[in-house]
What we know:
With 458 residues, the protein is α/β, with parallel strands linked by helices.
Amino acid sequence: MGDHIGAERKSPLTTYKEAVDWINGLIPFGIRPGLSRMEMMMEQLGRPERRLKFIHVAGTNGKGSTCAFLTKVLLATGYSVGTFTSPYITKFTNRFQYNGDDIPEETLLDLSNRLRPVVDNIALTELGSPTMFEVSTALAILYYAEVCVPDVVVWETGLGGRLDVTNIVNPVVSVITNVGLDHTDILGDTLQQIAMEKAGIIKPGVPVVSCANQPEVVEVIREAAQRNRSTLYLAGEQFTYERLNYESSMQSFHYAGPFRSIDIEIGMKGEHQIANASAAMMVLEVLRQYMAFVMDDEELLQGFRNTKWAGRLEEIGTSPRIVLDGAHNPEGAETLVKSLPQYYKYQSLNLMMGMLLNKHHESYLKHILPIVDTLILTEPDFRKKMDVNKLLEIVEQLKPKYGKPNLQIIVEPDWRMALEKLKLRTEEADLGVVSGTLYLIADVRGSLLNLSDSEKGW
């Protein structure tokens, strides 16, 4: 038998920290597209994913918010809900939620010990070791299928769709929030290519809901739905939404769908959140019409009103006023620029940003620069961070054309020092904004709220 049973002999992980370190220790295996390792893991665990009802959510922006609306409304209407999201904002356990609460640390430890021999055995095959994200996804499936068994699991893709690890499941509804240019190094650099990856979550006969609006993207999604004989519910066609009003704390819109119309109020800021809430409403309507879900309107509307999502136009502190927003791609920047003057009055706008390495920061900055008075460039505390001087080079190139004449630029690689400078700069009448990668938002948020057990990552 030789050494091949070495996988079985390792002493068990004994603490939550050991379990998280073991999972994060798989990070060097990177993101390796394809589902073969995932298939093998599920096979060896007895196919637990087949026992659950998933709502599978893909898209460039708005996935997290759409998952938040679905979770909150389903909980408000009496259903138990598992929510699997990434990356997490404060703690590793955030990604595996049941009824709004994180997975208990000891449960994560138990499940890690169950998974470890399976992972070690697969590592000995020609497929190589499962990645960190694959193991996290398998852990989520085990948690939902065997420990808490929710009525429905809100299931967010990690990257893309077609080859994403989460695509191992066969959902009851698929959602593609929208399609924009992000992760182009992995998903392709045209909207059509990215749309084809996202549309890869569409499964035979499973209805799909989408708020995508670019003609070339809609065409890709429509073709994939037809090929799979899936009913497509597309914003602007099968359902529509129209903003009614917005005040500082609430905004309302009129939703009209194939089954009924209703006015909905949400506490999340920004016009884009109306699109996300409408997509969530369309999904809930599909569950009601075709899967016998029963939802009381009063509870449903309460769920929408009470949905919050960290790091999306989130105001923290009043003196100085600081808003966090995880806009990190061109579409996110455009939305942020449109939303800030709608919700805030300010004399000067001071913006601190840090990014990960990838290609589209020029178009992000083209949107942002025209509205900024002071720009503070920093680096997220993360392995794939973009060097602050490289970011400065892009800003210097774009500044003559897009920047305000008196734009001030501060370069501070240490995000903690950068945050202090932002606070000092932002006077009573001003607004401070922290934007860019969610890894930076997670740290800044932890610091502003004094969250001591803030961890972060994929």
